[in-house]
Amino acid sequence: MIDREAAAAAREQAKSNAGPLARKVFEYTEAIERAVPRAKDAGAGNDVWAEVEALIDIARFERVGNFKEVMTWPQYRAMLAQWGGTTEFWSNFRAITEAGNRVFLELEEHNTPKGGAESVVNSLSLYEFDGAGKLVHLDIYLQYLPPGMDAAWGEVDFAATAGEGVPA
């Protein structure tokens, strides 16, 4: 697990050295972190997403999630609002890299569903921008330990998983 203070310091250092698109990713993630709690409020409208929407091309935006599900901005916005009302979320910054019109963001994400146990995943998100600097594509990749599976390599019985890599 990453030390939260060290991760926050690394994030601030990365922000100070970030290229123009990496700075937009920091803006986007911070805007999401502000909007999701506001979306939980009864009667919250789509205006809570205005800061996020200023950073994306709403008509072209596409998110591909960890299960390869594809979402438009309205679909993703609805999912974020629903998810935000059911969990507490925070993340530790690990790294950010800008290459061409793409930015790679690596985080350690912590989710605690209401009444549930905390889950921790390593994520790598790929942000793709158009020529105007608007976010048009977001890919999410997760690395996590499924419940009941030991992290030790020698403990994994792949024969029992029918080749899926996850215990049956």
Please sum up the structure shown.
The chain has helices spanning 4-17, 20-39, 50-53, 73-84; strands at 62-64, 70-72, 87-99, 102-113, 119-129, 135-143. The chain has a 6-stranded mixed sheet with strand order 2-1-6-5-4-3.
Rg from Cα: 17 Å
Q: Write down the CATH class.
A: Alpha Beta
The coarse silhouette is globular
Structural class of the secondary elements? alpha+beta
H/E order of the elements? HHHEEHEEEE
Number of domains: 1
How much of the sequence lies in strands comes to 25-35%
By DSSP (H or I, 4+ residues per run), the number of helices equals 4
In CATH, the architecture is Roll
Model description:
- The chain has a single domain (4-146), classed as Nuclear Transport Factor 2, Chain: A (Roll), CATH 3.10.450.
- The radius of gyration is 17 Å and the shape is globular.
- The protein has four helices and six strands, in the order H-H-H-E-E-H-E-E-E-E.
- It has helices spanning 4-17, 20-39, 50-53, 73-84, and strands at residues 62-64, 70-72, 87-99, 102-113, 119-129, 135-143.
- Strands 2-1-6-5-4-3 form a six-stranded mixed beta sheet.
- It has 168 residues and is an alpha+beta fold.
What's the topology here?
Blueprint: H1 4-17, H2 20-39, H3 50-53, E1 62-64, E2 70-72, H4 73-84, E3 87-99, E4 102-113, E5 119-129, E6 135-143
Parallel strand pairs: 1-6
Antiparallel strand pairs: 1-2, 3-4, 4-5, 5-6
